[in-house]
Structures are given as C-alpha cells and as structure tokens.
Specification:
This protein has 1424 residues and is of the alpha/beta class. It is built from 35 helices and 53 strands. Helix 12 packs parallel to helix 13 and helix 29 crosses helix 32.
C-alpha cells in the first residue's frame, strides 16, 4: 500500500506499485461496512458523546442532551458536522482573528484563484474588523515581534487529505477562545509564540475531492494534486534531486510557500497529512532514492526524533505505533515515529526544503487512516490531535535562544549565523537579531558569526529539558581593527612608549594548561581574537583532508597589514598529530603575549614584527594541523630515532576522543600521519629526491601561504627528542652525514639562540633513558647528520622562499600527560621569546628606484661568498639574516644597474642598508629614441591626474582596498536572487536613480527573446572616451550559476551608491568605463533551481547549447553573437572578468590546448591578483564536496589544465578582441541558497574592486607624428607577441605584469619604433610614441635610391641614343644582306644601263661582297 498522503499515485512520478485489485466479494463486504447501519451509527454516536464529555470544546455550542437517532446530522452536530468550503473557511478564520490577537492574511492564490489564507495568532497583534470580507484580505501579516519564535502549521497540501484542514480551524478557535477566557497555558503560549496557521494549501484539490473516500485513487481529478496535476509535496527543490521540480508557474501554491518561508524566520513547522497515523521526520529521501528502508539522517536527527515523539506521545493512536489502517494493517512504527526516507522515499518534499533552505525544523504528521473521512468523525479526530498540536507548538521554546547584537550600538544583527560545534547545520538570526536554535538536552559550544564582525563563541552552554537556555552575543565590528596607514617614511616607525613598570614587574603567565582537541582549540583561538582585536587576527590558511580549518593566529600592533620594513615570523606546531607539546606551547604563548602586551616591556617590544602561529600556529602562530585520527602507514619513521614502528590504530590530539591517544607515548606513530596516511614532513618537494607521494591539501595550503607572506624566520615544533635541528635535512646520497647549506653559520646561531635558553636541551643528552647513545653538542644538530629526511618542510622553506626555518624537538615524550604541561612551558618560555627576537638580526632595508623613489619588487639581494640570495617584497623592503661580520652585499633587479655595498653586521640588531638602483644603460639608450617614457613634471602635469595616480598607488598598497571598503557605504542587503524580470527592473531602477553615470543598452536577445542587458557606469556613459581604460564584467554564461549575476548587480549598486559620497569610488568612476553584463544566458537562469549545487539544469541556453563552447568565427547562438558583435569585436576593452560557478578558483587563457601561451605572465598576474584579494581562493583548496582533494596552487590555473574545451569566451576575447580575460569561479555550489549571498559578496567584493584598480595600470600611451597629429590604427606589438591597436586620438592601453617589456610600434608610412618600458606594480607607465615619416625606399635611404635612380635613367637614355643611331644606319642596307663594291663612276652607269634593259647577267658578272662579314669592309665610294 502506498503512502497515506506521502507516496505518489500509480502512474505518477515516483510511483512504486499500483494498489492491488480487490476481489468482488471483498468489495461488497466493504460497501456493506460503509452503509450507515444502526449498529455502526450507534458506535459513532457513542464515541462522539464520550469524547464530548471528556473534553468539551469551549468554543463549540452546547449539544442536545439526548441526540435523536439515527445520529447527528450536519445541523445538529455544531462545528464538527461539516467540512468548510472556500467561503465558510474564510469566514471561520476571520472570526478567529480577534482584535489584539489575530490577523488573517493571504499568501497568494491557487491556480484556480482561490486564496491561500493564513491566520496569525499572537498577543499584542492588531486585529481586523469582524465584518471585513476575508476574500479582500491582503498579504500583510503585520509586524514581526522580536523575541517571539515563529511556528507554522500547514494543512490540506493534498486536496483529498482533509482532516488537517478542519483540525487547524478548530485549533484556531481553541487558541483564541482559551486566550479570551484566561487559560494560563494558552495565554502563556500566545504571549510568547507567533503562530501561523495555513489550513488549506491546495484548495482547488479539496473542491474536487469526495467525502468518504479513504484510500487513494489514480485519478488525478480526485483532489490529491493541484489543478495542473502536480503533487505539491513533490514540487520543492531537493538536495538529492534526480530531476527537475515543475516550474513554479505550474505550482503557484509552492511558489507562495517558498516566498513565505524566505520572508519569515520560522523556527518550527508541521505539515499535516492523512492516510496513516505517524509522525515522520527528515530526510524524506536519500541519494540512493531506494523506495524504502534507507535511514536518511540529518545533522539534527536527535532533535527531529524528539519533536516527532512530542507529537506522537500525546496522540492516543499514534503513540501505540500500530495504527492498524485498513490499507496496511501490519504496518507499525516504533513510538509512532519514522524517518521519512526509511518509510518511503519522497523527492521534492516540503519538510526537507524547510530544513535545507531555512532555519525551520519541519516534520510531517499523518493524522488519520482515512484521507477524507465522513464529517461525523471530525470531532474524534480533533480530540485525538488537540493535545498533540498544542504540545508540538510549545516545543519551539526548547534549546537555545537569544539575540545577536552590535556591541557598539546595541542594535540587532540580522542574518547572523549561529553554529553549534559538532552539528553541521547552521541557522540565522531574524530582523531584530533574535535567534532560536532547537536542541535536545546537553552541553554545547555555540558560535555567532556576522559579516563585518568578529565571531564570538560561548562554550559549555547547558541545555536542559524544558524552556530554552538564553544566550546573547555582542559582536564587535571589524572596523575597530582599522589602523590609519603609516605616512612616515618606511625606515621610521613611530612607537608609543609603554608605561614604565617597576623593576619587580612579573609578566602574567598562562593559566590554561590542558590538552586542546580541535573544538577546544577553536574556542580558545576565537576567544583571544575577540578579547584582543587590536593586536590579533585569526584566519585560516586552508583545510585538512577532513575539512578542518588550518588556523593561523596573527599578533602585531597592526594585524592584517604588512607594514613596510617589519619582518614576518611564524611558528608551526603539531605537524605530526601525535607530537602535541608544540601545539600547547603555542597556545600558551598566545595567551602570554596577549595578556602582557602593553604592560611587559619585552613583550611590547615584539610588536614591531608580524608574528604568526600555526599550533599548528604561525606569530603568524600556526596552530596545529588539525589532523583527524588517520590510519598511518604500516611502517613509519620516528624522527627521534632510526627505528621502524608498526601501528594498527591511529589517533590525533585534534580529535575529541583522547582515550584513543596514547598519553605518555614517546616512540609511537599513532596519529602521526594525516587522514590520507601520509607523513606531512616527507611531503614537500625535495632538492635531492623525487617525492612520489601525492601532495596533500595541508602541504599545498602551507606552500601557498609561504608564497603569500614575506616570512623571514620560522620554527617547526615537533616532539620525540630534545634538540634544535637545522638544514639541510638530507643530501644527494641519502645517508646520515652532515649536509651543509650556504647559511650554515646563520642556522647554527639561530639554533643556539633557542637551546641556550633551555638548560635541559643545551646539555645535549636529555633523552638518555630512551636513547642512551644519542648526544647533541649544545642541543643542536644538522638535520641530515642526525637522520636523513627527504621532503621536509624546513628545507623547502629555505630553498623556495626567503624564510629560514629550523625544526625544534621539544620533548622526549610525544604526548605527555596534562600535569606536565606547565613544566614544558617553563622550560621553553624564554627560548620561544629569544628565538623570535632573532628575526631582527643581520641586514634589512629597501631597494628603491632612482627615478621615482618607489620600491622595487623582487629585487635580488645577494651576499658575496654565500650562495643564497633573497628577494624584496612589494615596497622594496627586504631582510637578510646574517651573523656578525663584514659582508659585500649586492642589490640587483632586471633593467637596473646593480649596486654593491660593504656592510658590517654587529651582534645587536639589524643594520639598515638601503639600495637605490638606476636604470641600466640600455634602458637609457632606449629612452633616447622617439618612444619616450613620460616623466611627470609637477609644474606642468595635470593636478587631477597626479591626484588619481596617487589614489591608484594608495589602493594598491597593503590594505588599501580594505580601507576603501570600510570607508564606503554600509554593506548591501543581498537576500534573494533576481529572476529575469527582477533583474530588468533592478537595472532600470539604477538608470532612473543615477542617470548621469549609467546607461542601459540591449546587446541582443536570447533564444527565447529575453534581452541581454549591458549596463555602463562612467561619468560620461555612452560617450567615446578613448583615453580612459574600459573594463568588462560578464556573468551568467551558464544559467545554473547565478552567483556571478548577483555579485555584479551588487557591484553596480555599490558603485552607484558611493558615487559623490566616497572620493575614491567617485574618482574610479570618473576615470573608468565600466561595462557590466549581468546575465548572458537569461533563458538558462529561468530554468535553474536554487540550491541545486551540482544540477546541470539551466547550464545551457534554451537550445541546449553550452554558450562557452560557441565563441567561434561562426557562432550559432544569438547570445554569443550579441557579445561578439557588440562587445568583443570592438576591441576597445583593456580587461574582461567573467564570473562562473562550480569551484573557488580563477582560470586564465587558454581553455583550448595550446603549446605556448602568449603573455602568460600577465594573464597569470591578473588571475593571481583576483585570487590574492579573496580570503580563501589564494589558498588553492576549493574543498568542493564533489572534488574534495582538488589542489590549485595559488588558486590560479590555466583553463586548459583544469577543464579544457574549445570555443570559450576568454579565448575568443584574447585572440580576436585583443583583451585579456579571466574566469572567476565564485562558489563550489552552482546555485547556493540565497542566505549565502551576503557571505559571497563579502568574499568577492575586494577582488572585484581590485580589478577596477588594476585596469589603470600597465602601459598607457599615445601615438603621434612629429607634428603632434595622432596616429590611429597603429599596431603596438608587446614582447613580440601581443598586439593592440591605437584608438581614435592615437591612444592605446595594455595591461602587463610588473617588470620590463619590449614595445614595437608600427604604422604605414612611418618608421618602426622600438623601445623598452618598465611597468610598476602600483602605477601605470605612460609613453608617447613619436613617428618619423618613413624616408626609406626598399629598405634603403631615400637619397641613395634617388641618386641610383638618376644615374640609371641617364645610362638608359644614352644607351637608347646609341642604339637609335646604329639602327638608323642599318636601315639603309639592302634586305638581302649583300652590297657590290663600287670603285668607279663608270661602273655605276653600266649598272643602271643593265638594270634598265632587264639583263640580270650583267649584274652577276660583277664581283660581290657578303655584307655580314665585317662592318669595316662595307665601303661607300664617292664619285670623282
């Protein structure tokens, strides 16, 4: 038998099996049973009379003392004698809406236009006039009352399951009447609870259903479904959904409920059905979607079971667990409750939607075996459910409740996240900051988090049976961390003197000495971050294999900001999970530094550095790698001894089960490795050996972190011996032998600075009971000389960063007893402080550009005879650790002449040595040609231009964008997604409200004829300003990833709101042309469903084409053609940023497989810039559920190396639009819940603004001829690859990575120009290209060509004359080629005579001469 209002009908989606046909005799028997025989009527009457006598309804009219046979009819049965149809239902609800107590409102209308009435009941609420027409009520439920949790009950979701419809009307009467008569229980309930009753969600189906029909019917017209044949309890978005729910236009009833849930902050809900008698709780389905038998557990399973039992235990039939419904008499439910999926798999149900998409806990209540029982049974059904309903509503007051408020203003904080340690399900606070977290009895650690505020944790909250425990949170705004940027020169740091303290002053020592497992450590860190916000910053560098945060506590006088000239230091603890002393010492050190800062001179002095702790803490303290209980390899090496150990079990102090961890362990490996069973201190790339193990997420996170911060000094805290170990850790042979690094003397000094302060360590034989033959002179050792360790972290630090790291073994016992922890602190306290001070030894300073005085990034500082250079950071600042002595130090940078200085390093403090580098001679020669780098002259340059250049430099500085965000208008209220209609109205609203800086254009239409909107934001929108850079933001190329769309709408609103209000934003808009295309695929967006994290529905356009494969020369889709023709092919953009979803990273061109990538450095630089301004993207661990092991170094990867494909938008933009484009993947979930939008905006806001700043860098230029006339359409070739064309007015702009770049300028009729330009990381480089007319012909000088041409022409004329003369002479000769030699005049006369007579013989008789013999032989005789 399929479910009682839960399971689908045969023939419908999800149906399992049809009802078995009944034999004809059985059918006749059933008909006889249903006939109103006297015995059956007497039974009904007796049951009704008994129920009435035991619990009369105070709002029901008195019944006759002796009802007449054959039984009560509709007229005589009072309120129980009939079902209420539309008009009467509205009237009954309106009557219950008493002034000051109730309010009737409507969620909307059904498909057939019937109102979806809701009655709200709570004390102090303005009511409605009794005479008001219920059909005319509006959607307004009245104002929220902070401090009162909201409960909702929904009935008649299936139109043929009707008991709930009536029972909710009876409940409304009961509550109103009980409050009026002063019933203490009901008065208390309505004074403290906000109750919303929706008797009929499917009024259309109810009107079609037939009274007396108990079992389901396959006829869709029978009332179960809505008017379009859709089951409303299969029409909600589903976390495990295999298909798509119907479009919301098909189920307006579902749309109304979804909007209702989103616009309120319901805490508890019941969905009332019929067809069985049981309380069902989430989840209703499972990923396997097996018909039944799979227990699909939520994170709040115990709470749901408690809620279900609270209802079932008060129901006389349900509590038995044996409803004996005729349709399935053998079906039983333990305690009258069941897990939904275990009973029957329901995809698209409402109760799961409530839990997954809101803060509401909903269960499904099956009230009666018969779906539509005769009205005569309604009294009994009410009595069965009355106590259960009231008890269930009262359960909204269990668990924890309270307010989240701003500690400064005291105002409530809406949408603050309330999380409970150990339960992976969060809720959010309401509009007044009130929250209600349902929990069963127990002890909990509860945290409140809100964007823009420091999180706060309250630990050990005791929840008891009964009323909720009150817990209030006062969150401190992060704005109190704002420290004004340092305006003095980097080498001067003003220090506020600490108050004088008596000589006898003793620092405050830590008090918290116990083993901190991961939840305890979290609470400890958050506590100190909250209590000392001005000197601490807590952040995560990534996640472990099991998604635990790798926390870092940063301690400084200006946390979160790298101040030029201040070195950064880190401690790392608990790299091996079973070596816990380092973890606890770093927690002690944090407590010690925080409590003594400002009172103890030595501690206060340390403030001039950045200290980061991983405890795994990096000062940056890295606090311990929060390893779970992994299963280590069968054989693992103990660093303290070359002995192999076997282990069959494992554990880590990060677990909450200390009994599994071997307290007092000294040589074991239990818990050593990570959850993938890899030793993290053998997992780093090695200089001598190939590490074949896969790189672990913890390793990747640390490497990315070390590339982000300019660490100078570090220590990695271990256990198992008592010694300081320094590089190298291995050598080429892999044997135990001294492996000296170039800075061996420095490392020995660093190691001794620690061991000297630890007397036991300094003795060198501290663990003689364990290792009697082991001795370390003065407590230090070279790593490889002790034991060869390939793949260690300390060597990787030294070889790949500027950081010098040692490994400190703190204790012979790896996991000591708690009672010994104070002793370890006392032994190591002085050593920890003394080692931190070593960061201020050696040489420090700045490397500056001689031209403009700016710092040079990545300049190399090398020391003669020490083959280990270091590099400068963003402001040109550097630190080079050295022991006392005299050194020859050289600073060099590409394109600059190196500078060498002799420096004497003393024993105290670092020597400051600044280097000022001049551009190299080749660069100077380049500057002398016709392409000149413009040097601004303060007397002639535009003051506003100089001011804007200063702004770009300020915003590019450390924390510059953070200051911009803090000084701008408050955060936007992102609380919902915009449909296409909403998006269009939003954009039009921006243009109407900000007409001077916005312009909305239509690029084209989608396949389904929706407009593809383009919004331009600038001070002169829709006007050509070729001298200004132009940036393009595009989102929604995949319709199922709409986060980008919402982020771009938020960006547009942010810019408009702050124009003329925030100076920085105003200047950016005035000098930039910003084009925003929020939705490239509006058709796909309309089909996509919220919280469908992996569903492909909506990814393609309406024709099923992935638009990111259609950007080709013959694009087939209207959406891609619109972008190509109206944006890309105009070739006037300097940068394009595309937003997508499905991970947390940035890709750069190309998406297609190519051998080489032109301008790769610049493309990667742009992608890295976005990732580095994102709080987690740069860590390279998206941690997406479907790709949990994915590691992307720096959060940046070439598209083809991630998900290669042809026809992408960014490839087309680079190839044909000459515009670099990056693609940003904003979230793992394609379509996360709207509740995550504020967090996503907060995460991406800084990165988006960084793109607006970056577009003003690179190279700006103008091309003109000698007369000053602009040359347009000239070709600018950069680094012999990238080409751009000059615009109108001769302007061009191209983004390039910081450094030197070659430029060639080509234009028809002009000489080609060549030069080199230097691009700064914080400013644009401007060039003017002046063309000379091209005087070369065929590559030769014009003068030479003219001379040669003249000579050639003269020679040709002379030759022609000679030839003419010769030809003229020859023309006088006979054609036969012979001529007789004439010697006498007489002969000539004879010849004439002979010729006249025609005699030929006379001619032949003379002598003849062949004319061709020689010219000299041809003689002409003169007549004498």
């Amino acid at each position: 038998m399929w479910s009682r209002g839960r399971r689908p009908l045969p023939g419908q989606p999800g149906a399992s099996r049809p009802p078995l046909p009944l034999p004809l005799p059985l059918l006749l028997l059933l008909l006889l049973l249903l006939l109103p025989c006297p015995a059956r009527l007497a039974h009904i009457k007796k049951a009704g009379a008994t129920a009435a006598a035991t619990a009369p309804a105070p709002w029901a009219p008195a019944e006759p003392a002796a009802p007449q046979e054959p039984g009560p009819g509709p007229e005589s049965a009072g309120p129980f004698g009939r079902y209420y149809h539309e008009a009467e239902l509205g009237a009954e609800l309106a009557a219950a809406a008493r002034p000051g107590l109730g309010r009737l409102y409507s969620l909307g209308r059904s498909l057939e236009g019937r109102p979806l009435w809701v009655l709200r009941l709570t004390a102090g609420l303005g009511g409605q006039a009794p005479e008001q027409d219920p059909a005319a009520v509006g959607p307004d439920p009245g104002p929220r009352i902070p401090g009162r949790p909201q409960v909702k009950l929904v009935g008649n979701m299936h139109g043929d399951e009707t008991v709930s419809r009536q029972v909710l009307v009876y409940l409304a009467r009961e509550l109103a009447a009980g409050y009026a008569r002063g019933d203490p229980r009901l008065v208390r309930l309505l004074n403290t609870t906000d109750v919303h009753l929706l008797p009929s969600l499917n009024p259309d189906g109810f009107e079609r259903a037939q009274e007396g029909r108990c079992d389901p019917t396959p006829d869709a017209r029978a009332g179960r479904y809505n008017s379009r044949g859709h089951d409303l309890n299969r029409s909600f978005p589903d976390q495990f959904g295999t298909g798509q729910p119907p479009a919301l236009d098909e189920v307006p009833e579902v749309r109304a409920v979804i909007d209702w849930i989103r616009s309120n902050n319901f805490v508890l809900s019941g969905n009332l059905h019929g067809g069985s008698v049981v309380a069902s709780y989430p989840f209703d389905d499972s990923p396997q979607h097996k018909t039944s038998g799979i227990y699909s557990r939520t994170d709040d399973d115990e709470v749901f079971k408690y809620l279900a039992k609270s209802y079932a235990s008060k129901h006389p039939i349900m509590k038995t667990g044996d409803p004996r419904c005729p349709s399935d008499e053998d079906e039983t439910f333990k305690d009258g409750i069941t897990n939904g999926a275990h009973w029957y798999d329901v995809e698209g149900g409402m109760q799961d939607y409530n839990y997954m998409w809101s803060s509401c806990f909903e269960i499904t209540l099956e009230l009666s075996c018969c779906k539509y029982p005769p009205a005569s049974q309604l009294r009994q059904e009410w009595e069965n459910n009355r106590e259960s309903l009231i008890t269930f509503i009262e359960k909204v007051h269990i668990g924890v409740r309270g307010f989240v408020k701003d500690s400064t203003s005291g105002s409530g904080l809406e949408n603050a996240t309330i999380s409970v340690a150990g339960i992976n399900h969060n809720i959010t606070s309401g509009k007044g900051g009130d929250f209600y977290r349902l929990l069963v009895a127990g002890t909990y650690n509860i945290t409140a988090v809100c964007v823009g505020y420091m999180p706060m944790t309250v630990s050990n909250v005791v929840v008891q049976e009964g009323l909720a425990t009150e817990v209030n949170f006062l969150l401190r705004p992060t704005v109190i961390l704002l420290v004004e940027p340092q305006t003095a020169p980097p080498s001067v740091t003003p220090v506020t003197e600490a108050p004088e303290t008596p000589a006898s002053h003793q620092p405050i020592q830590p008090q918290d000495f116990h083993h901190h497992h991961f939840p305890d450590m979290e609470i400890f860190l958050r506590r100190f971050a909250n209590e000392y916000p001005n000197i601490t910053r807590l952040y995560s560098l990534g996640k472990s294999v099991e998604s635990r945060e790798l926390y870092v506590m940063e301690i400084s006088d200006n946390p979160g900001v790298h101040e030029p000239g201040e070195p950064e230091f880190k401690y790392i603890g608990n790299m091996h999970g079973n070596e816990v002393v380092g973890r606890e010492l770093l927690l002690n050190l944090i407590e010690f530094l925080c409590k003594n800062f400002g009172t103890d001179p030595e501690v206060t002095e340390l403030k001039n550095s950045f200290y980061k702790f991983i405890s795994c803490f990096y000062i940056h303290f890295t606090f311990s790698f929060p390893f779970p209980c992994p299963h280590p390899r069968a054989i693992s090496y103990n660093r303290a001894s070359p002995v192999c150990f076997n282990s069959a079990m494992s554990c880590s102090p990060s677990q909450s089960q200390p009994q599994l961890c071997p307290l007092g362990d000294s040589t074991g490996v239990v818990g050593r490795n990570n959850s993938n069973n890899f030793d993290l201190n053998r997992n780093f790339p090695d200089q001598f050996f190939q590490i074949t193990d896969p790189v672990q997420p913890e390793t990747t996170a640390v490497m990315s972190w070390l590339k982000t911060y300019p660490f100078v000094l570090s220590a990695n805290l271990h256990g198992g011996s008592l010694v300081v170990n320094y590089p190298y850790d291995d050598d080429e042979q892999g044997v135990n032998a001294y492996s000296k690094c170039p800075d061996d003397a420095v490392f020995q000094h660093l190691a001794l600075s620690y061991s000297k302060e630890n007397s036991e360590m300094y003795q060198g034989s501290s663990c003689k009971d364990m290792y009697p033959d082991e001795h370390f002179s003065h407590g230090i050792t070279n790593g490889a000389n002790w034991y060869s360790v390939p793949g260690g972290m300390q060597d990787w630090n030294y070889l790949n960063t500027n950081c010098f790291e040692v490994t400190i073994e703190l204790s012979c016992i790896k996991y000591p007893y708690e009672k010994d922890l104070p002793r370890y602190w006392e032994q190591n306290r002085r050593s920890l402080i003394q080692f931190m001070k070593q960061v201020h030894r050696g040489v420090r300073g700045f490397v500056l550009d001689a031209t403009d005085g700016r710092g040079i990034l990545n300049a190399t500082i090398s020391v003669a005879d020490i083959n280990h250079p270091v590099t400068s950071y963003k402001s040109g600042d550097y630190w080079r650790l050295l022991v006392p002595g005299t050194y020859k130090i050289t600073a060099s940078a590409r394109g600059y002449n190196p500078v060498t200085k002799n420096v004497t390093v003393k024993d105290e403090g670092a020597v400051q040595v600044n280097f000022t580098l001049a551009r190299s001679s080749s660069d100077s020669r380049n500057k002398s040609n016709k392409m000149k780098e413009m040097v601004a002259d303060s007397g002639s340059s535009d003051p506003t231009t100089k001011e804007f250049e200063t702004l770009i430099k300020d915003l590019s500085a450390e924390n510059g964008l953070q200051h911009l965000m803090l000084s701008s208008s408050p955060n936007l209220a992102l609380y919902r997604y915009h449909s296409y209609k909403d998006l269009s109205e939003f954009l039009r609203g921006l243009v109407m409200n900000y007409p001077r800086i916005t312009n909305l254009t239509n690029l084209g239409q989608s396949a389904e004829f929706r407009q593809i909107w383009s919004l331009e934001i600038s001070n002169k929108p829709n006007m050509s300003e070729p001298e200004e850079p132009k940036i393009r933001f595009v989102a929604g190329i995949h319709g199922n990833a709409p986060v980008g769309t919402e982020l771009l709408l938020a960006l547009a609103e942010f810019l408009c709101l702050n124009y003329k209000r925030n100076p920085a934003v105003t200047k950016l808009i005035d000098r930039t042309r910003i084009v925003i295309v929020p939705s490239l695929n509006p058709d796909g967006r309309e089909r996509a469903q919220e919280k469908a994290c992996t569903s492909p529905t909506g990814r393609t356009n309406a024709r099923g084409k992935d638009l990111d494969t259609d950007f080709t020369s013959n694009a087939s889709q209207p959406e891609t053609r619109a972008i190509i023709e109206n944006l890309i092919q105009k070739q006037d953009f300097s940068l394009s940023v595309a937003l997508d979803g499905g991970s947390v990273l940035v890709t750069y061109p190309y998406d297609k497989p190519v051998q080489t990538v032109e301008n790769k450095e610049t493309l990667r630089h742009l992608a890295s810039l976005y990732a580095n301004n994102h709080p987690s993207m740069h860590m390279g661990q998206p941690s997406c559920p479907n790709k949990s092991d994915e590691n992307i170094p720096g959060g940046v990867i070439r598209g083809a190396e991630w998900h290669g494909h042809m026809g992408s938008m960014k490839d087309y933009s680079v190839t044909y639009g000459h515009c670099p484009e990056i693609t940003v993947y904003t979230s793992c979930c394609y379509f996360p819940s709207a509740g995550q939008l504020p967090t996503l905006w907060a995460e991406n806001k800084k990165s988006l603004l960084s793109m607006l700043v970056e577009v003003h860098k690179g190279v700006h230029g103008i091309v003109q001829d000698k007369s000053g006339k602009p040359v347009s359409k000239a070709v600018i070739v950069l680094n012999e690859g990238i080409k751009v064309h000059t615009k109108e007015g001769g302007y061009f702009h191209v983004l390039l990575a910081p450094g030197f770049h070659n430029i060639n300028a080509i234009a028809d009729g002009y000489q080609q120009q060549h030069s080199q330009v230097f691009v700064h990381h914080d400013a644009a480089s401007s060039v003017v290209i002046v063309f000379d007319t091209d005087n070369r012909i065929f590559g030769l000088p014009r003068e030479l060509v003219v001379t040669v041409a003249g000579a050639t022409m003269s020679a040709l004329v002379l030759t022609a004359c000679i030839i003419w003369c010769v030809c003229s002479i020859k023309s006088n000769r006979h054609k036969d080629g012979f001529h007789r030699l004439r010697q006498h005049h007489d002969d000539y006369e004879d010849e004439i005579r002979l010729m006249s007579t025609g005699s030929k013989k006379s001619l032949l008789s003379h002598e003849f001469q062949d004319e061709t013999d020689t010219e000299e032989e041809t003689l002409y005789s003169s007549k004498h």
